[in-house]
Give the backbone structure.
Amino acid sequence: MVHATADLADNADDVSAEDLAGEAPEIRQCEVDQAWHGERLDKVLVRMAPEFSRSHLQSLIERSCVQVQGEVADTASRKVRAGQVVRLELQPTEESRAFRAEALPLDIVFEDAHLLVLNKAAGMVVHPAAGNWSRTVMNGLLAHHAGAASLPRAGIVHRLDKDTSGLMVVGKTLPAVTALMRMIAAREVHREYRAIAHGRVPDEMEIDAPLRRDPQSRVKMAVVAGGKPSRTDVFVLARGEHLSGVRCVLHSGRTHQIRVHMAFKGFPLVSDSLYGGAPALGLTRQALHAARLSFIHPVLGEPLVFEAGLPADLDAAWRAAGF
């Protein structure tokens, strides 16, 4: 059995992620008794801090936050001995640190008391997730207006992929967020994209193919029978010998929808390595931009239409393709 003590809390199980977000970390210590002689160090840490995952506790070992008998421990598989004192310096998880305000350069093209529309830069993640716990749109929104902290996902009602640029609408009040989510579900928010695809795309193309998570890869989506209904309409704006500039209209908003649908039809987007689009035109990210967004204001009832021109990299690629 492990007898643990905590320097900053009487009851370790009551310590929340918010409690750990301050400057002073919580320190827990225990003396290993005979029952735990020979056990792995990470198993001992789980007993000392059961509210944290084993993987997080292992990461604390890697960050030199664990000592055994006054010496920094460097391996999770190390065996402890009876009588040894284990010292654990608890640090907040990456998830708990993600939901904080960060002053970031958000390109806001419209804002009132109820909502805002922003032109997201390529490379910026919309919502914190594994590998991207900071400098996201959500972090920027939390710094932009105080009300974001009381809203689900800081008011984010739809997302763009990290490497897709363009327009997004965000709610600033709970009534606006609720109304926008209902409008998106009812397909009352009109979204159009500009893209560059490999191949000679037909003048007009309706892609109605169900999407779901790729059974072979958790990071991809795929056209699979039984998936969620998904439709994309595609219109050619310009065409070269091996490339096509297209306008894509969404009738549903599935993850990676345009990218998957275009690849499914044999026209993957330029530089979309995840779905088979070879790099071209100097692009280092998929050639996709949310160019137009229109909807009825959820509170005022006024029609709103927004357009965002191609960012510098896509504009240069468009011209390089001869469109």
In short: The longest helix spans residues 174-185.
